[in-house]
Fold this protein.
Amino acid sequence: MSKQRSAQEVVEIGVGFAAEGSTGVAYAAIHGGPNLHPIRVPFAVRRVAGLDGRDVAYAALRAVARTIRERIDGPVRFALSDASLVADVAERRVLPVSLTMPYVALRCQLNRFPSADVRFSASPEIVDLAARATAEASLHVAA
């Protein structure tokens, strides 16, 4: 018999992602969830020069949050290895103009949860999810 999670228990979700060009893929692992395999979430991104991948991070987390919201209706905590995105969300920093709309779109997705936190993690799980996404994104470019 599996343990039931209370409506207020925070669900941890590890996220790894990568993109080549305007398409990417993210993998989300729900801790304690019924699925043993990570959830694959494709996404599109409008790349902007000079953002060092922050545009990709925003698009990936927005897509994952949208997908997770269809499965989980309680509080969540996303863990990913992009320190800039985590700081942007946690500290509400001043953003480059080109990230304003992606930030608003991400906040809209996060606000659909009763509570949503974003934290930095360089755990082996996150590294593995990111490596899986990077391999897949690279294969699509090579094909």
Residues 124-142 form the longest helix (19 residues). The chain has a mean pLDDT of 88. The chain is about 40% helix and 25% strand.
